[in-house]
């Protein structure tokens, strides 16, 4: 990854309203040169509108978008130093691959010989060498997407925008393309801005992710921070799977904190949370961070670890549901208070999934650095 | 579609039962009269109401004389001009409907089709009422003229001469205008259906790659709307070529088209064999147009 820290796109207090609907609500963020930036959010959250405003297909109702130091307010899409890969790929059906990829260069009046060289180079880059004469209807969806990618990359834009680039591909191809896109971005050094609703996609490709909810940025962070240190319930819930319990903050010091959750029990953390004492907070606990035991065993292990006072970070329950996913088994456990909690357990040996079954009484424990306290 | 085709092949008897009536209808009321007229074209008058089919080619010989051929070519020119104007006027209309808000689209399409709800004759007379020397067009122009005259007197200039109405009707201009008016919906509808199918992100992609609106229109919209353009041209050109009512009512003595000549043979001149020969020359011309189009369509299919 190129480590230039200059912002290439500055989004300043941008809002977009369609009639009474506010699609984007006062968003400000900087996208740095050379990074792989992902806008992540549920459908209808405004992420695509934001991308289309960067491309110039929508005009902000308020605010300003600056690309490479230049205010884009009055710049039409065809004059912006960005190119877009459309969700439907938008490969021109009446042109072969050569003409599709060379379209922008032809419009720009580049000499024929140079067009041919640059198109060939771009096709090699997306692993479509030799496809020059193919028509789009003779190609698979994945190949058409590569054509769309090459068509944008050949323009050598400052920023490449990708609208849900992997949503139309099947699962295997999607996983492969995730790697290829990251790889490609490394190679060409162009800033990529991608829109997706798929958190796996965001986590695997991005250098930074902006989670968008209801037109606002819910959190802007690196993928691992997003997952391990979600800023609020929306992010914790949207990115990955999580158990959330309501509770009261009973202890909050620089190196420790405790939350009393009626549904779960006493939760102890080995770091402070800087929240008001006695405030209503939420505890987020990821399923894979909870250990599952036969009753009683959890308490002993908890005590031996000595990273929390007695009676903290423990729970008991009954297995009510179970789904075997191969690499892990997912358990739905009813806590003694009645609330459900999800626990995932890696199948480290071939018979691990046989350890627990429906209606088994189990005990659980987690480490003091696992829970996250959320203030909103 | 494939399933329906298979059913047709395996269920021949019910299909034949359903198809026989319309086929019979077409044979009786379309093919048979056409065949009779076709035979007439090889005949000659053998009395006031008698036609002897003698196998003569005399009618065709006469039909290809310069007098008739020139009218035929002129009809083709008028029809082609009509089609061209319809295309130029109709394309923006079709695009406007395509890009209109979805809730407006059905109403705009209805507006295009509304003229079909009224008889052609009535529409033509209505247009004539507008365009006559005492019509609203002339009144409007006259009003503007008088306004200009009044403005001149205000600034101390001589007033203009009195307004003399413009002769809008009974000339070639009126015929082309009338034909454009009648045939415009035939052009707009196929264009709309082609443009509606066009993926709008293709237009955005073209803009994104640096093309302006005009280049995007020429490089992306027009080629992809080509099937609609061809359909619209054919569906406008063919009826315009055989137009009868519009040149008859709105044209002058020099603006008759081939259909008017044919009508005269069947009625006033009472020369059915010659009228039949002229009719079939027109039909052959249309066949050639349709054949050219389908040949072109096949060719593009092969290229694909």
TrEMBL record, chain A:
<keyword id="KW-0067">ATP-binding</keyword>
<dbReference type="InterPro" id="IPR005893">
    <property type="entry name" value="PotA-like"/>
</dbReference>
<dbReference type="InterPro" id="IPR027417">
    <property type="entry name" value="P-loop_NTPase"/>
</dbReference>
<dbReference type="GO" id="GO:0005524">
    <property type="term" value="F:ATP binding"/>
</dbReference>
<dbReference type="InterPro" id="IPR013611">
    <property type="entry name" value="Transp-assoc_OB_typ2"/>
</dbReference>
<dbReference type="InterPro" id="IPR003439">
    <property type="entry name" value="ABC_transporter-like_ATP-bd"/>
</dbReference>
<protein>
    <recommendedName>
        <fullName>Spermidine/putrescine import ATP-binding protein PotA</fullName>
        <ecNumber>7.6.2.11</ecNumber>
    </recommendedName>
</protein>
<dbReference type="InterPro" id="IPR008995">
    <property type="entry name" value="Mo/tungstate-bd_C_term_dom"/>
</dbReference>
<comment type="similarity">
    <text>Belongs to the ABC transporter superfamily. Spermidine/putrescine importer (TC 3.A.1.11.1) family.</text>
</comment>
<comment type="subunit">
    <text>The complex is composed of two ATP-binding proteins (PotA), two transmembrane proteins (PotB and PotC) and a solute-binding protein (PotD).</text>
</comment>
<keyword id="KW-0813">Transport</keyword>
<dbReference type="Pfam" id="PF08402">
    <property type="entry name" value="TOBE_2"/>
</dbReference>
<keyword id="KW-1278">Translocase</keyword>
<keyword id="KW-0472">Membrane</keyword>
<dbReference type="Pfam" id="PF00005">
    <property type="entry name" value="ABC_tran"/>
</dbReference>
<dbReference type="InterPro" id="IPR017871">
    <property type="entry name" value="ABC_transporter-like_CS"/>
</dbReference>
<keyword id="KW-0997">Cell inner membrane</keyword>
<dbReference type="GO" id="GO:0016887">
    <property type="term" value="F:ATP hydrolysis activity"/>
</dbReference>
<dbReference type="GO" id="GO:0015847">
    <property type="term" value="P:putrescine transport"/>
</dbReference>
<dbReference type="InterPro" id="IPR050093">
    <property type="entry name" value="ABC_SmlMolc_Importer"/>
</dbReference>
<dbReference type="InterPro" id="IPR003593">
    <property type="entry name" value="AAA+_ATPase"/>
</dbReference>
<feature type="domain" description="ABC transporter">
    <location>
        <begin position="9"/>
        <end position="239"/>
    </location>
</feature>
<dbReference type="GO" id="GO:0015417">
    <property type="term" value="F:ABC-type polyamine transporter activity"/>
</dbReference>
<dbReference type="GO" id="GO:0043190">
    <property type="term" value="C:ATP-binding cassette (ABC) transporter complex"/>
</dbReference>
<keyword id="KW-1003">Cell membrane</keyword>
<keyword id="KW-0547">Nucleotide-binding</keyword>
<comment type="function">
    <text>Part of the ABC transporter complex PotABCD involved in spermidine/putrescine import. Responsible for energy coupling to the transport system.</text>
</comment>
């Amino acid at each position: 990854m190129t480590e230039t820290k200059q912002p290439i796109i500055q989004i300043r207090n941008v809002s977009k309203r369609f009639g009474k609907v506010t699609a984007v609500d006062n968003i400000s963020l900087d996208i740095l040169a050379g990074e792989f930036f992902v806008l992540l959010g549920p459908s209808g959250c405004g992420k695509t509108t934001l991308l289309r405003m960067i491309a110039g297909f929508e005009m902000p109702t308020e605010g300003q978008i600056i690309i490479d130091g230049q205010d884009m307010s009055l710049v039409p899409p065809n004059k912006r130093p960005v190119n877009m890969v459309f969700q439907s790929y938008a490969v021109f059906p009446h042109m072969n691959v050569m003409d599709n990829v060379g379209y922008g260069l032809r419009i720009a009046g580049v000499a024929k010989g140079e067009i041919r060289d640059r198109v060939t180079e771009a096709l090699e880059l997306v692993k479509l060498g030799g496809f020059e004469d193919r028509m789009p209807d003779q190609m698979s969806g994945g190949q058409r997407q590569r054509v769309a990618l090459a068509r944008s990359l050949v323009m050598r834009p400052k920023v490449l925008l990708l609208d849900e680039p992997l949503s139309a591909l099947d699962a295997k191809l999607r996983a492969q393309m995730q790697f290829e896109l990251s790889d490609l971005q490394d190679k060409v050094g162009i800033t990529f801005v991608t829109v997706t609703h798929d958190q796996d996609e965001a986590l695997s490709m991005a250098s930074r992710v902006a989670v968008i909810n209801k037109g606002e940025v819910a959190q802007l962070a690196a993928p691992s921070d997003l997952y391990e240190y979600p800023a609020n319930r929306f992010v914790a819930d949207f990115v990955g799977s999580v158990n959330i319990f309501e509770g009261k903050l009973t202890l909050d010091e620089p190196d420790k904190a405790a939350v009393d959750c009626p549904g779960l029990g006493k939760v102890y953390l080995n770091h402070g949370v800087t929240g008001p004492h006695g405030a209503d907070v939420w505890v987020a606990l990821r399923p894979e961070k909870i250990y599952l035991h036969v009753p009683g065993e959890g308490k002993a292990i908890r005590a031996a670890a000595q990273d929390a006072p007695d009676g903290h970070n423990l729970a008991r329950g009954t297995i009510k549901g179970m789904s075997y996913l191969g690499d892990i088994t997912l358990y739905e456990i009813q806590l003694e208070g009645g609330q459900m909690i999800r626990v995932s357990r890696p199948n480290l040996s071939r018979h691990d999934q046989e350890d627990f079954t429906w209606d088994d009484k189990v005990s659980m424990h987690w480490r003091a650095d696992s829970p996250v306290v959320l203030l909103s | 579609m494939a399933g329906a085709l298979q059913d047709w092949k395996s269920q021949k008897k019910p299909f034949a039962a359903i198809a026989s009536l319309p086929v019979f209808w077409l044979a009786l009321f379309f093919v048979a009269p056409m065949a009779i007229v076709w035979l007439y074209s090889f005949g000659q008058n053998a009395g006031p109401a008698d036609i002897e089919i003698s196998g003569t080619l005399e009618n065709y010989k006469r039909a290809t004389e310069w007098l008739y051929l020139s009218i035929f070519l002129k009809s083709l020119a008028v029809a082609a001009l009509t089609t061209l104007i319809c295309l130029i006027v109709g394309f923006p209309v079709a695009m406007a409907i395509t890009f209109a808000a979805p809730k407006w689209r059905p109403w705009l399409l209805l507006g295009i089709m509304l003229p079909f709800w009224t008889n052609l004759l009535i529409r033509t007379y209505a247009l004539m009422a507008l365009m006559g020397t005492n019509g609203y067009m002339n009144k409007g122009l006259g009003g503007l003229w008088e306004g200009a005259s009044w403005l001149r007197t205000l600034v101390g200039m001589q007033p203009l001469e009195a307004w003399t109405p413009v002769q809008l009707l009974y000339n070639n201009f009126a015929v082309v205008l009338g034909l454009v008016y009648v045939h415009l919906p035939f052009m707009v509808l196929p264009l709309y259906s082609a443009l509606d199918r066009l993926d709008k992100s293709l237009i955005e992609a073209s803009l994104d790659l640096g093309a302006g609106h005009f280049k995007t229109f020429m490089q992306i919209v027009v080629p992809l709307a080509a099937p609609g353009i061809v359909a619209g041209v054919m569906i406008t050109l063919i009826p315009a070529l055989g137009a009868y009512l519009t040149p008859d009512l709105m044209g002058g003595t020099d603006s008759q088209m081939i259909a008017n000549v044919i009508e005269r043979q069947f009625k006033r001149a009472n020369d059915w064999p010659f009228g039949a020969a002229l009719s079939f020359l027109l039909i052959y011309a249309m066949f050639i147009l349709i054949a050219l189009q389908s040949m072109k369509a096949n060719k593009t299919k092969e290229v694909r």
